[in-house]
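In response to reviewer comment 3 from the previous cycle, which asked for concrete evidence that the modeling workflow produces usable outputs, we include below a single protein chain processed end to end. The sequence was submitted unchanged, and the resulting structure tokens are shown without manual editing.
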Amino acid sequence: GTSPMTSLLLAMNMAATQFRLTVEECLVGTTRAAAHALGMQQDIGTLEAGKFADFAIWNIQDPAELVYRIGFNPLHSRIWRGQ
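The workflow returned the following structure tokens.
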């Protein structure tokens, strides 16, 4: 299905607080597991040679900051398709 939610960080916050996922599980769920669920694990989801270089650079000191604050967006920059 689809979701009207537009905030990946809010989804991660809800996964951590409501469903008690760890920070690591939230990150895997939004990367590797998401790519697998879409049948796209050969091209995206992990940083490996031969895959598209899609990733975010966050201005944080600890990954837990991504799921802790609601409305906080520490995105420094993003790389999509290597650009």
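The first helix runs from residue 8 to 18. We consider this sufficient to address the reviewer's concern, and the full set will be provided in the supplementary archive.
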